Amino acid sequence: EVQLVESGGGLVQPGGSLRLSCAASGFIFSSYEMKWVRQAPGKGLEFISYISSSGRTTYYAESVKGRFTVSRDNAKNSLYLQMNSLRVEDTAFYYCAREGCSNGVCYLDYWGQGTLVTVSS
Amino acid sequence: DIQMTQSPSSLSASVGDRVTITCRASQIIYNYLNWYQQKPGKPPRLLIYGASSLHIGVPSRFSGSGSGTDFTLTISSLQPEDFATYYCQQTYNTRYNFGQGTKLDIK
């Protein structure tokens, strides 16, 4: 059974840092691109970052570029999101998700339960 | 940047109704369009990928159609567990934008 479990969320002051983790199990982690998606309370979904299966290619939405860093450790079946210079507007549930692809079309087929990051003074 | 616009933003319906939600892309995305369902306090769940392919385990009352810029998600006969928020997502480019969501609630 595919499982993704996020951890590391919490309350942090503006300008602070947090590191989120996503522990993967039930599939060959090193074979899949992984994504981070966030959702402010009561709002819609925002795709913020992805990392290739090898870790060599990454992408960031403009809203987090230069402040967030995605990484992975395939030996530990783990995905990470280092978040620096946090802003009040970064307050959200953060989900890790696995990307699956079929016939050239890709999608997010498994999601973690999410971890809440609250940025407030 | 590709903008994804869903309509309506909210919708009230009854059990047994046929419901259609629309998603429009600001440029051609061919069939790189996915639909997700999200219930309160839960992560999104993939329903449809590639505009019309049903994800494993998803009931057949859900269907998707469209290509290019205009897409629809149809629920043929609403069940109580279908009341949720639905999102479309484009995967044509790396930004993977989502629509703003359509909240489906009980009339």
Characterize this entry briefly.
The complex is a heterodimer of chains A (121) and B (107). Chain A is mainly β and 121 residues long. Chain A contains no helices and eleven strands.
Topology at a glance:
The complex is a heterodimer of chains A (121) and B (107).
Chain A: E1 3-7, E2 10-12, E3 18-25, E4 34-39, E5 45-51, E6 58-60, E7 68-73, E8 78-83, E9 92-102, E10 105-111, E11 115-119
Parallel strand pairs in A: 2-11
Antiparallel strand pairs in A: 1-3, 3-8, 4-5, 4-9, 5-6, 7-8, 9-10, 9-11
Chain B: E1 4-7, E2 10-13, E3 19-25, E4 33-38, E5 45-49, E6 53-54, E7 62-67, E8 70-75, E9 85-90, E10 102-106
Parallel strand pairs in B: 2-10
Antiparallel strand pairs in B: 1-3, 3-8, 4-5, 4-9, 5-6, 7-8, 9-10
Structure description:
The complex is a heterodimer of chains A (121) and B (107). By secondary structure, chain A is an all-beta fold. Chain A contains no helices and 11 strands. Chain A has strands spanning 3-7, 10-12, 18-25, 34-39, 45-51, 58-60, 68-73, 78-83, 92-102, 105-111, 115-119. Chain A is globular. In chain A, 36% of the residues are buried. Chain B is mainly β. Chain B is built from no helices and 10 strands. In chain B, the strands form 2 sheets. Chain B has a 6-stranded mixed beta sheet with strand order 2-10-9-4-5-6, with no helix packed on it. A 4-stranded antiparallel beta sheet of chain B has the order 1-3-8-7, with no helix packed on it. The radius of gyration of chain B is 13 Å and the shape is globular. Chain B starts with a strand and ends with a strand. The relative contact order of chain B is 0.34. The mean pLDDT of chain B is 96.
